[in-house]
Amino acid sequence: MTVRSRISGIGMYVPERVLTNADLERMVDTSDTWIQDRTGVRERRIAADDETASTMGIQAARQALEQAEVDPKDLDLVITATTSPDGMFPAVASRIQDGLGATGAGAFDVNAACVGFLSGLATATQFIATGAYERILVVGTELLSRIVDWSDRTTCVLFADGAGAVVVEAGGQGGPLSFVLHSDGSGAQTLYADGPCGVPNGLEPDGYYISMDGRHIFKFAVQAMDSATRESVEMAGLDLSDIDLMIPHQANLRIINATTKALGMPPERAMVNVDRYGNTSSASIPIALREAWEQGRLHEGDRIAFVTFGGGLVWGAMIFEWVPVGPLRPVAEPVHATASGN
Ligand code: UT7
User: Fold this and answer.
1) Do residues 141 and 247 both lie within one domain?
2) pLDDT score of 54 more than 90
3) What single DSSP character describes residue 291?
4) Nearest to residue 5, comparing CAs of 129, 88, 97?
């Protein structure tokens, strides 16, 4: 008998600074029309100099903990998904654990590019299913603006900064019904960012920038999101028509629309906010989840499909039956009429 888990709090944080398509027109040879037509992005957020993946993650985590009404000291574990950590180590998760005062929690990072948050969430639900832990914070946080080559118009219009977080707790009658995680490392060269440990001592590269074969990734993304959704829906014993809301990785509006089309779903069944935040990699799904909650799109018993793909190449999906956020309300006692004689 495995323990069910539920998402009891959702938080997000995006930096204040907005970078519009008009701003990008002044930086590279591009246009607002091209960016909107090809990607759906209108604007994105860029971190301030004093921000890092951990400072943004802490902000998102605080909002999630507040909604869950969970004291950081009661957390058992902090899992952080990021591809843009403050440093090589310590883990961003340890920095977040310290910043929150989660003194009873273990901490580690997950790097699965844009599948990082889903991988972290799947990990958290497994710790809970076995009974090992009861309360886990999963954070997706990215400061991609520091690994974007701002002279490369094929990538700088897409990527941006932000953080999202969820509190995963034991209990409730919903939770994950299925998940799939896939990898094909042979496609690594189509989307990657190098780092200092891959470079022999003495060689000084210009920087460690995101490099991408956009057309290849586009085709891969639609095929991967389509197949992962079908696979996880089937594993859950459901039909595609049972999915109430899809929360896809926010990479490109055309990718999201092509995926819902391939799945025979109406486009409005997918949550979209890529227009305002661009691609925030492992932060995109929890940010979209928070906004779906704010828009009243999450209802008890709904089947939510988290679906994503990224550099690796990796892809995956999870079907999650929704339980309302906040503390679990005790089931109301049946009301008995007080005896008043007969
Ligand atoms: O988390 C996963 C991360 N990555 C992705 O999800 C990326 C997936 N791929 C995409 O989103 C799209 O492939 C892009 C948005 C990157 C590009 O859109 P596209 O429709 O595939 O365009 P394209 O690469 O086929 O390029 C079409 C034209 C080219 O010019 P020519 O060769 O036709 O003269 C590009 O040089 O558009 C040009 N171009 C641009 N023009 C204006 C490329 N980037 C830009 C730009 N502004 N920013």
Assistant:
1) no
2) yes
3) H
4) 129
Ligand 1 centroid – CA 157 distance (Å): 10
The string of pLDDT tens digits covering residues 188-200 is 999 999 998 888 8
Same domain, 155 and 182: no
Q: pLDDT, tens digit, for every residue of 289-320?
A: 999 999 999 999 999 999 999 999 999 999 99
Nearest to 278 by CA among 85, 143, 112: 143
- What is the four-CA torsion angle of 253, 254, 259, 264, rounded to 10 degrees? 100
Which residues form the domain of 263?
A: 177-321
SS3 of residue 81 by DSSP: strand
Is residue 287 scored above 90 in pLDDT? yes
CA atoms within 13 A on the CB side of 101: 6
| Residue 328 covered by a domain | no
From ligand 1's centre to the CA of 30, what distance in Å? 11
71 shares a domain with 28: yes
Same domain, 146 and 219: no
Binding site membership of 157 for ligand 1 (Cβ less than 6 Å)? yes
How confident is the model over 70-95, as pLDDT tens digits? 999 999 999 999 999 999 999 999 99
pTM here is 0.95
Residue 257 Cα to ligand 1 middle (Å): 17
- Indicate if 144 and 9 belong to the same structural domain: yes
- 336 noted as active-site residue: no
Mean pLDDT of 30-37: 98
Rg (CA), the chain: 21
Residues 144, 204 share a domain: no
Task: Spot the catalytic one: 21, 156, 249, 252.
Answer: 249
- Tell me: do 306 and 223 sit in the same domain: yes
> How far is the C-alpha of 228 from the C-alpha of 49, rounded, in Å?
38
